Amino acid sequence: MSLETMRPNPTWDAASYDEAVETLAAHSDELTYKIWGGDWCKDCRALLPDFGAALEAAEVPGERIEEFALDQDKEGPGVEEYDIELIPTIVVENDDEEEITRFVEEEDVPPAVWLADEIETAVEAA
């Protein structure tokens, strides 16, 4: 694990996010989560521990989670390739490495909820 902020929040209540956890779990063997953040970043410290807990509750395999720690200039692996500007950014890809959706720090709902809704929409459209 390259981001301390991805350590699951031990007080996060999965039951309060049942639908999001169910969606993440339903697709746990077909989607990959690529997460860019920084342990120095207040938004990452606020959002990523709960997302880590959601992935854990959904039993998403570790090999389906890729973490990229960025420096304070927001530079690091994959930044240019994935056009990362704000952190945290979470890109969800299918097994063909096609982007399904992405969560960017400025969304107004927690990452697990936002991504679960987007994943459901993408799956229905497919």
From TrEMBL:
<dbReference type="InterPro" id="IPR013766">
    <property type="entry name" value="Thioredoxin_domain"/>
</dbReference>
<protein>
    <submittedName>
        <fullName>Thioredoxin family protein</fullName>
    </submittedName>
</protein>
<feature type="domain" description="Thioredoxin">
    <location>
        <begin position="1"/>
        <end position="126"/>
    </location>
</feature>
<dbReference type="InterPro" id="IPR036249">
    <property type="entry name" value="Thioredoxin-like_sf"/>
</dbReference>
<dbReference type="Pfam" id="PF00085">
    <property type="entry name" value="Thioredoxin"/>
</dbReference>
